[in-house]
Design the sequence.
C-alpha cells in the first residue's frame, strides 16, 4: 500500500506541474475583456485536472492508512 500511495502522490505532482500550473499562469494572464467562452476553455480542463489530483490525494491517504494498519 505504501508504494501505491507514493505512486499516487507522484502522479498528482506530475498533473500539478504539467497541467495545473500552466493553466494557472494562463488564468493570471487572462485579459479583463476576454470572453466567457475563452475563460471556460481555460478553466474546464483545470477543474478536471484538479478533480484527478484530489482523487489521487484521497487514494494516497487511504493507502497510507492501510499501510500503517497492516503493519
Sequence:
Amino acid at each position: 500500500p505504501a508504494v501505491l500511495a507514493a505512486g499516487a502522490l507522484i502522479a498528482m505532482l506530475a498533473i500539478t506541474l504539467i497541467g495545473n500550473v500552466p493553466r494557472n499562469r494562463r488564468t493570471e494572464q487572462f485579459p479583463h475583456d476576454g470572453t466567457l467562452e475563452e475563460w471556460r476553455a481555460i478553466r474546464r480542463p483545470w477543474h478536471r485536472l484538479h478533480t484527478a489530483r484530489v482523487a489521487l490525494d484521497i487514494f494516497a491517504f487511504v493507502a497510507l492508512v492501510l499501510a500503517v494498519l497492516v503493519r
In short: Residues 63 and 69 are 10 Å apart (CA to CA). The radius of gyration is 16 Å. The helical segments are 2-28, 36-70.
